[in-house]
Amino acid sequence: KAGVTQTPRYLIKTRGQQVTLSCSPISGHRSVSWYQQTPGQGLQFLFEYFSETQRNKGNFPGRFSGRQFSNSRSEMNVSTLELGDSALYLCASLTSGKETDTQYFGPGTRLTVL
Amino acid sequence: AQSVAQPEDQVNVAEGNPLTVKCTYSVSGNPYLFWYVQYPNRGLQFLLKYITGDNLVKGSYGFEAEFNKSQTSFHLKKPSALVSDSALYFCAVRDYTSGTYKYIFGTGTRLKVLA
């Protein structure tokens, strides 16, 4: 089975722009979670989508949003970028079957905001 | 709310020596605990998990972890470290609050294995 894929792997944007990141979960996995990883804050949970619905949300401003499509692929959008949004954005997929408790991560998208 | 703590930012160990990366947790109820490893410019890779049962859990790449309920710890161990084990290690707990699950990660411990 193919693993979790994320595109693009690297992005450079300037302040005020917006960005969209994409995540394709492992085939058959219906849950996708997004995390922000920074050296100072570690992994911070952004949100989780399951069957096209946001099931859970972390403590991030409304500039961070997401959605999930019927094929379980998910996108994350950040509007009005700030310097502090520079981070590695990770997505993780989770099956709804027997192994419902283990998240599998993609390689991440490294976002740099200038 | 549940939480995990990784008290060491960095652990140095000589190649061939045993290694331990520490993790303590705070939960209500029975914990679901996980260890992940992250290599440079990569995502997190699942190593092992504890759900229930045997307190010693074996995982990938020769790693194991010991669940200790009385000490609320879930330390990661390996009998003989390799230079290639050098990476960032994360402990995580699954939190169940208000009818939904969240995964809470520790701050990470950087392991350096010295040749």
Written description of the protein model:
With 114 residues, chain A is mainly β. Chain B is built from no helices and twelve strands. Classes of the chains: A mainly beta (114), B mainly beta (115). The interface between A and B is medium-sized, with 22 and 22 residues.
List the helices and strands and how they pair.
The complex is a heterodimer of chains A (114) and B (115).
Chain A (H helix, E strand, L loop, with lengths): L4 E3 L2 E4 L5 E6 L4 E10 L3 E9 L2 E5 L6 E5 L5 E5 L8 E9 L8 E2 L3 E5 L1
Parallel strand pairs in A: 2-11
Antiparallel strand pairs in A: 1-3, 3-8, 4-5, 4-9, 5-6, 7-8, 9-10, 9-11
Chain B lengths: L2 E3 L4 E5 L4 E3 L2 E3 L6 E6 L5 E7 L5 E3 L5 E5 L4 E6 L8 E11 L2 E6 L3 E6 L1
Parallel strand pairs in B: 2-12
Antiparallel strand pairs in B: 1-4, 3-9, 5-6, 5-10, 7-8, 8-9, 10-11, 10-12
Which short descriptors sum up this protein?
heterodimer; A: 114 residues; mainly beta; 11 strands; globular; B: 115 residues; four-stranded antiparallel sheet; 0% helix
In brief, what are we looking at here?
The complex is a heterodimer of chains A (114) and B (115). By secondary structure, chain A is an all-beta fold.
Radius of gyration of chain A: 13 Å
Q: Please describe the biggest sheet of chain B, giving its number of strands, its sense, and whether it closes into a barrel.
A: 6 strands, mixed
Distance between the termini of chain B: 41 Å
Portion of residues in beta strands of chain A equals over 45%
Poorly predicted spans of chain A: none
Radius of gyration of chain B: 14 Å
User: In percent, how helical is the residue content of chain A?
Assistant: under 10%
End-to-end Cα distance of chain A = 37 Å
